[in-house]
Amino acid sequence: MPALNITEESLRRLAPPASGRAVFTDTKLKGFSVVVGKQSRSFYAQRDVRGKTHKVFLGRHPDINVPEARKAAEDVIHGMRRGEARYLERENPTLRHALDGYIAASSACEQHKTYVKRACEVRLKDWLEQPLRDLTRGMVRTKHSTLGKEGKTMANDTLRAFRTVYNYALAEYEKAVLPVCPTIALRGRWYTEANERNGAIRDLAEWKKAVGALENPTHRQIYLLCLLTGLRKTEACRLEWDRVLPDRIFIRENKANRPFYLPLLDEHRAVIKAMKGMHKQWVFPDRSNSGPTVDPRHEEVPGTMHSLRHTFASVGAEIGIPDDIIGRLLNHSSSKITSRYIAVDVEALREPMQKIVDELMKRLNAVTEASDEEEQQELPLAA
């Protein structure tokens, strides 16, 4: 970073950078710096404490002048020397501080927390050490556009993970006085085609043919179980044998973070039976047989893994299953307060589950006029 004797005069002479931001460190006070953007000049104080850099936002020029910023920097740096860095972090948290706090405090399932952590540490790693108040709407729009070139769904999910952490910080760090979450800049800019790809699959006969052509038999069975149960991808992939009971499936790890039993039908048993003997713990082991399958997605199969959940729900609605029953089969959290007092026995869900599976089987086995019945891929399902 270039050095500069930061004064009112030298600040006036600084030309805005052609793009991005330029950082100038003060030649007289170590740790004092000014960040120059196209339309702003912001003062910071920073110091390394026990191998970790702590950076504190002091204010923007001309809201605060150089002498005031220099005095504030001296006070902050002196405070850091006295061990007040943790307090100062709460005044001006970075994305890293907010992420660590969210992961520690959140009651969400481990799968969700792992995804949020990975999204921030991998795809937003250049933001991690920046104070949250420095992450602007323009930066959010640029990041969303850049990530969108790699994958529209991934871009949406990454910025939603960021929004989750930022909103946690809004509630947790009251003294930081953070502005509204900058993802508001994406209103009307989220990639809608990514959501459309997750929509319900209409031609299940075509889908069945594509799944039947997959070389990996484990992936074929995961696709089928997700379709016939409405399970989330991770819930199916991480299914363990001791959770497959004679008349039900116990889902231990789920997004709703609560115990969940699903009725086990003959059609489900046929799918699971095909995996018997593959691994002593995991129903759907990976190729190395060292753990569960992580990502069974295949681009040649219509829709996404989440599309199967939408398909299950849509078919249920089409044949007249009430929304609240579909929600319970999918283990959705209800917005109704009374739901917390209602315990639905798994047997009460067996009949609606059977009706949905029967309709799905009918559509899976449908043969269009343009197709030759002998060419249909046969999958290991009960008759």
- Sheet with the most strands, sense and barrel status: 5 strands, mixed
CATH class of the largest domain: Mainly Alpha
Spans where pLDDT lies below 50 across 5 or more residues = 335-343, 368-377
Alpha-beta classification: alpha+beta
Report the total helices.
Answer: 15
Question: What is the 3D form?
Answer: elongated
Strand order of the largest sheet: 1-2-3-4-5
Query: On the 0-100 scale, what is the average pLDDT?
Result: 84
Fold topology:
Blueprint: E1 3-4, H1 8-13, E2 22-26, E3 32-36, E4 41-49, E5 52-61, H2 66-81, H3 85-91, H4 95-105, H5 110-123, H6 137-148, H7 152-172, H8 192-197, H9 204-212, H10 217-229, H11 233-237, E6 248-251, E7 260-263, H12 266-273, H13 305-318, H14 323-329, H15 350-364
Parallel strand pairs: 1-2
Antiparallel strand pairs: 2-3, 3-4, 4-5, 6-7
Helix pairs in contact: 4-5, 4-7, 5-7, 6-7, 10-12, 10-13
